[in-house]
Design a protein that fits this description.
7 helices; 82% helix; single chain; 229 residues
Length: 229
């Protein structure tokens, strides 16, 4: 018997929000701490900036994800309502439209009409949502899930450089936080690649290099101005 196939598409919704949240938490909080630590040796100011960055970032991520995904959900509902009206007003035209979609995908016209008829009898709106509009249960917009996932993963990501700054010596905050952040980004790249079935090296380099660039530029800003942000 052939081995069962293992797909990853069902993870797309939460995986995108999780990786985005964790990556943003590590990069933004790590960069903020590195920038402030480059401008001052007052560890209390560094910790306050890190905690403020964690709280503000988590709330911002949650709000941003909720608003953006809610907009997507509104668009999906509007499209479904448009399709529902079309099915009520001109079911024969919608049936031919569905059959034409299958013909364009390579199905013989007579068989395409049979398939369209059976799917319409079973779930007409579901068939059009899937094959005409490209909607699926795996990719349906879930605003609350996206918001909570982003906030939680941002907080987890931000906590790593924050803890590193708490336990680092005053004059070692910048290298310790930068190193801990880059290590965390590397780990995130590996985990996200494994969860999504992608190549580990490419995903890891993509995340780590952008994070390193962000922290380097922020450290440069802090060292140039030499003031507490």
């Amino acid at each position: 018997m052939p081995a069962s196939e293992h797909h990853f598409v069902h993870r797309v919704g939460w995986l995108r929000a999780a990786v985005l949240g964790a990556n943003d938490g590590i990069v933004s909080t790590g960069s903020l701490i590195v920038g402030v630590a480059s401008a001052t040796t007052d560890q209390h100011s560094v910790l306050v900036a890190g905690v403020a960055g964690l709280v503000a970032g988590a709330l911002s991520m949650a709000a941003g994800e909720y608003v953006s995904v809610s907009s997507q959900a509104d668009t999906e509902r509007a499209d479904l309502e448009t399709e529902r009206r079309a099915l009520d007003e001109s079911p024969k035209d919608e049936l031919r439209e569905l059959a034409a979609i299958y013909v364009n995908r390579g199905v013989e016209p007579k068989l395409a009409m049979q398939v369209a008829t059976q799917l319409t009898e079973y779930d007409d709106l579901g068939a059009h949502a899937r094959d005409e509009l490209g909607m699926s249960d795996e990719q349906t917009a879930r605003p609350v899930q996206a918001a909570l996932t982003s906030a939680a993963t941002f907080s987890c990501g931000a906590l790593l450089p924050l803890l590193a700054s708490m336990f680092a010596m005053v004059d070692q905050v910048v290298p310790v936080v930068a190193g801990a952040s880059l290590l965390s980004l590397t780990l995130l790249g590996v985990i996200s690649a494994r969860a999504g079935g992608a190549g580990t090296l490419k995903a890891t380099l993509r995340i780590t290099l952008w994070g390193a660039a962000a922290m380097a530029l922020t450290a440069l800003v802090g060292s140039i101005f030499g003031t507490v942000i």
